[in-house]
Amino acid sequence: MRSYQTHFMKKTILLILSTAYFLLATAQIQWPPITQTTKPWTRWWWQGSAVNKTDLAAAMKKYQQAGLGGLEITPIYGIKGYESQFINYLSPQWTDMLQFTLQEAKRLGMGVDMATGTGWPFGGPSVTPADACKNINLVVYSLKAGEQLQQPIIFIQQPLVRVESGKAPDIKTLSYPIATNKNLQGYAFDQVRFEKRLPLHLLMAYSDKGDTIDITAKVDTAGKLNWTAPASNWNLYALFQGWHGKMVERAAPGGEGDAIDHFSLTALNNYLGIFDKAFAGRDISYLRSFFNDSYEVDDARGQSNWTPDFLQEFKQRRGYDLGRELPALYQKDSAEKNIRVLYDYRQTISELLLEKFTRPWHAWAKAKGKMVRNQSHGSPANILDLYAAIDIPETEGTDILRFKFATSAAHVMGKPLASSESATWLDEHFQSSLGDVKQAIDKYFIGGVNHIFYHGTNYSPQNETWPGWLFYAAVHFTPANSFWKDFPALNNYIARCQSFLQTGQPDNDLLLYFPFSDRISEPGNEMLHHFDGMKGFENTVFNSSAQYLLQKGYAFDLISDKQLQEVQINNASLQTGGINYQTILLAATKYLPTETIQQLLKLAAGGATILIEKNLPIGVPGWANLDKNQSSFNQLLATLHFTTTAGIKTATVGKGRFLMGDDLQDLLSAAKIKREPMLDNGLQYVRRQYQGGHYYFISNPAMNAFSGPVALQTTAKSVVLFDPMLERKGLAKFTNGADGNVSVRLNLQPGESVILQTSNTTIAGPLFPYTTAKGESQALNGEWKINFVSGGPVLPPAIVLKTLGSWTDLPGDEVKRFSGTAQYSIQFKKPPGKATAWQLDLGEVGESAEIVLNGKKLATLLGPVYKIIVPSAAFGAENTLQVNVTNGMANRIADLDKRGIPWKKFYNINFPARLPKNRGADGLFTAAQWLPKPAGLMGPVSLTPVIFAE
Fold first, then answer.
1. Which residues have a Cβ under 8 Å from the Cβ of 937 and sit 6 or more positions away?
2. Which domain holds residue 123?
């Protein structure tokens, strides 16, 4: 029987190929199929795991009806007052709820992932002190010849208690390990270190003459050193292994406890064993994948920077004894040796995280027929390699270059999906509209993401008092949020976009080398650097070059040393993951491992073009085998003989070449790397290829509308234009340039996006409904009837207005605190004139608008622009326009806070404010000072005659 993972991967690939073939073979205008995976998914918070089958089924039905394709179960902290309903994580009752959820999801056609733990990072009550995350502590002693150390070699770990609740207990009242205490939900521990004597891990003596002696065995149990210093002056480096103390953040009941040692395979296997035990005899076959949130072990005091067998692992991997080089590790030797030994230490940590955690976790899941999704960012490791080791790399945040670390690994390694934790902190709580979320999602698409996960949706009992149970992130995708009514419009938009973005393959031209060795050769305030997008690279040529490529419209992915070894040369193209790239760029790289320069030379000999910006690397990183490696490096570089023409240095290697220069644009031009010039018009894109052409997702994030031709770097016999928001489609108007490439006409309002399909065959179908204004706008004046149809806390009375404005400006308190939907309606005569269609412009809207004309729904618009084309045939002599406007939950939340009605009832982290101005006296979020947020149809509403372009 095939595993779910194998079945999913094969099914995905077959779907991609069959869809592309279908589009090509039919030569007709078609949307790709909408599937469970093309729909957006959401992280599903189980607070306190206080779930029951009735409410699970009811909630999942709502999610399915709203257009969600799947759920990721992540149990977290509970709700105060519901302690009797808490279910301990992985208990038989909990696995009953999981099994029921899987069955119900299968019935509804939804997918299910689950976090491999509660909160983050991995850890919990099963993690013993032996398996908990560790740190190393250094004490240096000095002796002269003939002296004995009088003080005992003892290190007392100082007590530390950090809690999320803000009420740290006296550590003397706590038992060890922390999971043995009561009221763990109330305490919400983030980090705990008990006062205790730490075991001596190593004691090394270093003389000023260069002698090194291991004297660990000469320390007795009382800490007395029985050793007399020989001739010379000596420094004694004592390493004490301690407990970092990081706890599982936001832990659910039964999940509280220490984080695991991520550098220990034993610790991981012991931790995963609790899942094996819990799942024994259970049917979890429908579960798709396991999930791991970002590393986040070191978002605490100090770093988890050690594991018990680190010295053995280091010697095996680096070939020398780190114990004999502790002065260099702690930056007390020569400057060069310091950075090289530190590099070796960090490289070893990176390898351990990959080989002792990421890969074994993936193998464990694969053995169960499951995939894994992983947020590798924040790790003290080469995150491109961590992302490459799993099935679905996942990113988060708001920066496209940050996204590219996850999506590049997916592209380079041939993985069909790259996911995102989406819309976590767009604005303050309750301030983000669905239109704001759409703009954030479009940015993920531009960054290469094609599998959206909202962050997130709370399980909440159906009869819970409004606003129900909420998570502390700022965008609340919950049925209690009044924008849920129009949530399907956003979900359907995402599904249509992802139906293209999950089809075919990425089509990027350039591989940008990730200078990991440069970064981990830099000293810092801490022993480890953590990698998350461009953090730490802000002032590097690597960062500025990546920004340049992005801003100028070059299509690129990042690549690591390890991934580079997988690249093959194919007719002068660089092939990896089934994708062909045109070149590799090294942006002012300083250090390059020997195997990397060997591979670059091999690829060039086969016909590849390698770009070197600014300068050649100076040599190899690290201290291990330095002389041998540097000699090999120098010999390899000596084979490059450059000649200079027009500022570009060229070295021919076999069938290929190295190009080196100071100006990146000159290098790209010399290598004939083309860009998509639409970036010059303020547009953004992501491009994919399929058997018969290309797909372009194009968005307009600018504040101004764009109208005109857009030049594409591809040839085509036909171009199809898809509007994924309004589900319009048709043949695009295009022309062919002198180079054969096409230029396509686009009209994009601010915040609008489209999909282009170019085809090498002729596609039959109608023209896309381009329109051009043909006359003056006509205001839609008259009496507007406003009926508040759903929402709360109470429905304001109906009213008739002649002048539109925010409903919060109407008389009475009900409108100021109302969150929900109001129906605006107006009667009007058919506009005069012979226009073939009319552009209906709603003007300003707060926040989403469903448009109904003469009883027929036309569209749901999310903003920021609220315009739609209406054919003249849709109008009668007498007409009724209804605009159902829905606002978010901000005004109703503000009303609760103004009246002092409690709704923040959460353990652990009880609703922090994103912005300082929204913190109350208790330090928590409050909306008590908010003025009502404008809501409703504010207009002006107008009709403009348009004609369809020919």
1. 784, 804, 822, 824, 842, 843, 845, 849, 883, 885
2. 31-131+259-312+336-504
